[in-house]
Amino acid sequence: MTSPAQVRPKRDRRTLAAVQAAPYPPRDRGDLDPDQVLALLPRGHRDWKRILATLLAKHGHKHGTKDKGVSNRTLYERPRFLFQFFRDLHAQTIYHTVEPRCLGNRHVAAMVALWAKRGLSAGTIANYLSILRVFMTWIGKDPGVVRTAAQYLGDDSPLAHRRQVADYDHSWVAAGVAHAQVRERLFALCPHVAIQTEFSRLFGLRPREARCLRPHEAVIPRSAALARDIDEGSTAMHYLRVAWGTKGGRPRDVPIETQAQWELIRRAQALVPPGAHLGRPGYSLQQNTDHYYRVLSEVGVTRKDSGVTAHGLRHEFANDEYEKRAGLPSPVRGGAALQGSVSRDVRRRVSRLLGHNRPAVASCYLGQSVVMRSSASNGTDPSRGDGGGR
Known about the structure:
This protein is mostly helical. It has 18 helices and three strands. It has a three-stranded antiparallel β-sheet with strand order 1-2-3. Helix 9 (191-203) runs parallel beside helix 15 and helix 15 (312-326) runs antiparallel to helix 16 (340-354).
């Protein structure tokens, strides 16, 4: 006969069927906050979509690590990715009933294998894993549960590491594509798309930033420019404020230094009325995005047709700005190594013009000299200059 101490207590746990059959919290109750809704949806509940929507309502507007909000792009991309992630997890893997709060490493591993099979790029996989690390904090788990691509796919996998240094010039001119000629064809199809590409070429704007630019309000005096963006080596008395559609919601000011830049601004102001952006009127942001790439595709601006993409105009701007400030072509264009402090200052300035805070990001556009690559392999920080010096 077993003693009372040997009798195993009954578990107060419902079966999966009982959990999934739990009643829904009332949908017409506006007084329920996300925590109350989640409390009424026990773990394992069948309505994973409502659970995920509630988690997004509670956390989706918050930055992953900082006490601040997120950009409109992040607000759009997070739910889009997470809902598709769980649809694919349920339909394409063996984990057909996993609800969002029960997500674990093995589920992520299954999805990484699926992404690799689909041929997604290293950068895309890295971005997806980053979103999932933030999601883990929403469900009370350590973000370290989501490992790196190298740990999932092996360190030798070409998808394990994203490329951070340009090994060839991605600009249009390097591929033999003249923007001036393409621009005329673009204007015939859509002047709004054409002028957006010009702002990418002459000001280094991302396509999204160009679509969202309000040309009548964007020109500001030097005295109103952000202190970090004022170029002491420039005589520009006016700057272009890039505030809408920026990465991370970070505004920046680009000096207006050439007659070509002023002429572009005047043509843009003639194209749209005060307060209007450069996107096609009557289109939403997503419709404008789709329209932009559709028009570019019609004139052959795709990697498949001409070897270039819209982003190549930013590469062209970055490399031209480097050469203007350094007096030599960039490393990716065959330029010689600069003295460490000079290279560091030029790269920092080019990074700021592009809307990046880290000088090292410039290598994605400018490449690295032989000296910088040698320094990186020896453990020296190459972002400190071509010679690695202080």
